[in-house]
Amino acid sequence: MARPKEQEPNVPKHDEGDAEEGAQLERFSPEDEAATESNLQKVEANGLFTAGKYDAALNKYDEALALCPNYLEYQLAVLRSNIAACHLKLEAWKEAVDNATAALDGLDRLEARDKAKEAAGAEEPRAAEADDADNAEEEIISAGASKAAPPLPAAPDDEAARRGRQDDIARIRAKALMRRARARAEQDGWSNLEAAVDDYKRLASMANLAAADRRIVHAQLRALPPRAKAAQEKETAEMWGKLKDLGNGLLKPFGMSTDNFKMVRDEKTGAYSMNFQGGGGTKS
């Protein structure tokens, strides 16, 4: 994939005469260079994803993640969310859940840090992370989502910049949460389905969802609870079956089985008592 000229990590030979650009690159710290290279890998991965080359895109996103400095929480969250999108396409549900969760955790840390700085009256940081937030459109955006929620233009005042940053965080959070909910819903098991329901309920309360995503959320909130209940009943029956087998094994040497015991509910108190049913009658 051809790389835009302004994103080249080193000065091209045909631009050696541009002393200003060269001087700027020379002032980059190793962290700045790593962030620049990470972003280039992400851009290439986005192109591969759009082309349907999900394995190749996943490898590129992993490379970008390895290069990205740890303090760039927003950039790391975008990469983790995009990696989750690749795993969804490859039907690797657990990996999708893990990466989406990592993205959400990173956004929570970033938001908490921003709120702490705001409370302390600190100035908004102007590091590479803030620059990446201004270019937030580089994460994977589904068809229609880019039209429904375009990034805010840069604003001259701090308050507008703060709102734009909050909107960026909320947008990536919604994407990561949609991806985690989908991955959880695709897995079997009561705990996975209940967790998916919780994610979709959280999404339903968000005001920044695209119309298509909101329709999916409402549909899943109708479909998932019965599935979760059925899974719970199935797992409960399996658990009691295993306990019964264990009990029968323990009681067999005494010529008894779990069939000799019956749980009886007291209609007045709602409590249960165990009755023994042997050959000589019933005892409580």
Spatial order of the strands forming the largest sheet:
1-2-3
Proportion in helices: 55-70%
Q: Ranges with pLDDT <50 over ≥5 residues? A: 1-28, 132-137, 280-284
- Determine the structural class based on helices, strands and strand pairing: mainly alpha
* Helix-strand sequence: HHHHHHHHHHEEE
Query: Using DSSP, what is the number of strands?
Result: 3
Q: Ends: how far apart? A: 78 Å
Q: How is the biggest beta sheet arranged?
A: 3 strands, antiparallel
Q: In angstroms, what is the radius of gyration?
A: 28 Å
Share of residues in strands? 5-15%
Name the overall outline. elongated
> What's the mean pLDDT score?
78
Count of helical regions: 10
Describe the fold and architecture.
This protein is mainly α. It contains ten helices and three strands, in the order H-H-H-H-H-H-H-H-H-H-E-E-E. A three-stranded antiparallel sheet has the order 1-2-3, with no helix packed on it. A hairpin with a 2-residue loop joins strand 2 (272-278) and strand 3. Helix 2 packs antiparallel against helix 3, helix 4 (73-89) packs antiparallel against helix 5 (93-119) and helix 8 packs antiparallel against helix 9. Mean pLDDT is 78; it is low at 1-28, 132-137 and 280-284.
List keywords for this structure.
284 residues; mainly alpha; 3-stranded antiparallel β-sheet; 10 helices; 64% helix; disordered N terminus; disordered C terminus
What does the secondary structure layout of this molecule look like, with pairings?
Layout: H1 19-26, H2 30-50, H3 54-67, H4 73-89, H5 93-119, H6 128-134, H7 145-148, H8 158-186, H9 190-204, H10 211-251, E1 261-265, E2 272-278, E3 281-283
Helix pairs in contact: 2-3, 3-4, 4-5, 4-8, 5-8, 8-9, 9-10
